[in-house]
Amino acid sequence: MAAYIVEDTKKITTQRIMQMKKDGKKIAMLTSYDYTMAQIVDQAGMDIVLVGDSASNIMAGNLTTLPITIDEMIYHARCVARGVKRAMVICDMPFGSYQISREDGIRNAVRMMAESGADGLKLEGGEEFIDTIRGIVNAGIPVMGHLGLTPQSVYKFGGYSVRAKDDAEADKLLNDAKLLEQAGCFSLVLEKIPAELTKKVCQMVSIPVIGIGAGIADGQVLVAHDMLGMNDSFKPKFLRRYADLHAIMNDAIGQYITDVKDGSFPNETESY
After folding, report:
1. Number of Cβ within a 10 Å radius of residue 163
2. Domain range annotation of the chain
3. Residues 209 and 202: beta-carbon distance below 8 Å
4. Is this structure's pTM higher than 0.90?
5. 67-114 confidence digits (pLDDT tens)
6. Which candidate, 154, 144, 152, places its Cα nearest to that of 91?
7. I want to staple 32 with a disulfide (CB 3.0 to 4.6 A). Which of 9, 37, 238, 268 is the partner?
8. Which of the residues 7, 72, 128, 191 is marked catalytic?
9. Rounded to an integer, what distance in angstroms lies between the CA atom of residue 141 and that of residue 46?
10. CA separation for the pair 122, 90 (Å, rounded)
11. How far from 17 is each of 1, 13, 73, 126, 151, CA to CA, in Å?
């Protein structure tokens, strides 16, 4: 497979992301949680690198995204920001960092931007947090919204099933999307909702809509470890695997163990 060629190496900004929707250009977004992976993802030509609170699952082994802290998110974002030159770096605000009060949310958002090196933040939720989101935007911080399946509310939903299948929840999502645009969000993630509803949102708002398990949108986002096949047990319908790194890494590590144990590593050319 040929590598994606990036002709424009200028830094991606909120304005460029919004212009991409106007120009009908799709937006590619992928997660990273460390310097090495971020370098690779950025050099491949990614538009947005997301430092997701999915680091709670992928990096720490937690069952949900809820346990990860602000300090941990800042650490991961700082590592990623050091490795990225072109892509826009967006960092998730973790559970508990903006739900308590508007003032608390703004204070934590300012801290995360100052200490992480990220280019913007992502928050889950709509009308319930609209005043907080407006305050963060007014503080000069780019905000990406997130509606549909919001993993920080997994216990409220009772699982990770498709959201907004009924009319009431669909209507609320449409209203929330409008409110997020009005509050100043520069883009919006829709997770695990019906494709037809995503189509309505894309047509209704002027800001880019990025989908994950939500059908065709202005862009798409996936977790890098899932897309690369490093996690061989996670197999949702929406996930397309572009590699099987779990098998490749397992074979390589197994060969290393064999070579060490039979004495063939290191050989003379690998010794000083």
Report:
1. 23
2. 14-241, 244-272
3. yes
4. yes
5. 999 999 999 999 999 999 999 999 999 999 999 999 999 999 999 999
6. 144
7. 37
8. 191
9. 21
10. 7
11. 26, 6, 23, 21, 24
Distance (Å) of CA 33 to CA 59, 80, 193, 205, 245: 8, 6, 26, 30, 17
Contact 51, 96 (CB under 8 A): no
State the SS3 of the chain: CCCCCCCCCCCCCHHHHHHHHHCCCCEEEEECCCHHHHHHHHHCCCCEEEECCCHHHHCCCCCCCCCCCHHHHHHHHHHHHHHCCCCEEEEECCCCCCCCCHHHHHHHHHHHHHHHCCCEEECCCCHHHHHHHHHHHHCCCCEEEEEECCHHHHHHHCCCCCCCCCHHHHHHHHHHHHHHHHHCCCEEEEECCCHHHHHHHHHHCCCCEEEECCCCCCEEEECHHHHCCCCCCCCCCCCCCCCCHHHHHHHHHHHHHHHHHCCCCCCHHHCC
Lookup: tokens for 255? 């060969």
Q: Name 219's bridge partners.
A: 27, 210
**Model pLDDT for residues 149-166, shown as the tens digit of each residue:** 999 999 999 989 999 999
Torsion of CA 151, 176, 140, 124, to 10 degrees: -10
Of 239, 207, 216, give the one whose Cα is nearest residue 226. 239
Rg of the chain over Cα atoms, rounded to whole angstroms, equals 20
Those residues whose C-beta lies under 8 Å from the C-beta of residue 75, and which sit 6 or more positions away, are: none
Give the tokens for residue 205: 């708002």
Fold of 14-241: TIM Barrel (3.20.20)
Catalytic site residue 127?
A: no
- The CA–CA distances, whole Å, from 195 to 199, 212, 270 equal 6, 10, 54
Residue written as tokens 């905000």?
Answer: 143
